[in-house]
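Provenance

Sequences were taken from public entries as deposited. Structures were produced by running a predictor on each sequence independently, with no templates supplied. The record for Aminotransferase class V domain-containing protein from marine sediment metagenome is shown for reference.
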Amino acid sequence: MTKFRNLSQGRGYLAIPGPSVMPEAVLNAMHRPAPNIYAGELVDMMPPLMEDLRRIAGTQHHVAMYIGNGHAAWEASLSNVVAPGDKVLVPATGRFGIGWGDAATGLGAEVEVMDFGLQSAMDIDQIAERLEADTAHEIKVVLAVHVDTSTSVVNDIAGLRAALDAADHPALLMVDCIASFACDRFEMDNWGVDVMVTACQKGLMVPPGVSFVFFNDRAAAVREALPRVSRFWDWTPRANPQEFFQYHCGTAPTHHIYGLRAALDMIHDEGIEAVWDRHETLARAVWAACDAWGSAGDLALNIADPALRSHAVTALRLKAPQATELRDWVEGNIGLTLGIGLGMAPKDSPESHGFFRLGHMGHVNGQMVMGMLGGIEAGMSALDIKRGTGALEAAAKVIGGA
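Predicted structure for Aminotransferase class V domain-containing protein:
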């Protein structure tokens, strides 16, 4: 038998659902000496940068930038509209909905979770019934995750707004777009979203460390009615700065701003509609391959209905412990890193080794996705994982437009 030669030398491919692949243009923009933070280029960059973020979000309203990850954006958004004792409704479809609700609990909110499981989208009818039953309007905020990165489900945010409107319910609609921003179609104003949070390390293709809270005038009015908001979390001076330091409540994330400028230029050069279309096509290629593999084996897409799948991340199931074995093999032998299963089973349980995820977000093209799928095929072959044939051909037909 010929001994297998390790083929992991060369540039690795990080195919996890964030941090995503960073373009050379972003890395090059960040590779510079520290700039002046009081005058000049950096100061001049901020107003058009914030406007370009609004364009991607589909809003004419406000945006505040924070030095911090997505969890920071969760807390920032909540700190501006939720007071201790306020009732918060969380229609959860995975780990990140639960997590945002937990952040609200940490701020003293009374959190009610409607858990729709790990393989389903939100049930808008059930949520509508709950809102209609809240005749006293005790619920102040609804926290919804557009794409839950753990399950790869995409939720109907416009439908959720329609349910709120039909019930004549005044609760703020707050949406987590950390996984979906600049990947899956999202239209803040057209969909009636009051507050949206996202971060820079996925569709925006920038190293982790900066997050954003978008909010409309309804949400701003709730903020103004609160007796206090901490100086750091307060979104008002960040969204309406009188001095440059107020954008970030202190020293700016200088190099992230340069990287973000380069990333936004790339997105706007392509056009957001084209960005969404690219992600959709690449996602369909991934699904086609997975359907072929699953036709004669244990591999299965976590979300059965294609209409409910994200275009940024795909969660998959295998017979345990094959998912972990596959991830270990492709990373160690061919330099391909796949995402772990997250929140699908208790961390230390045998079942946890039966899940993995593919990130296809941000700086990703057809040959990269074909390479990722080819790497998975090689790993399943090496590990003798039972599977159907024709996966790469199926993906190639999608990418080739057949």
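Residues 145 and 176 are 5 Å apart (CA to CA).
The first helix runs from residue 24 to 30.
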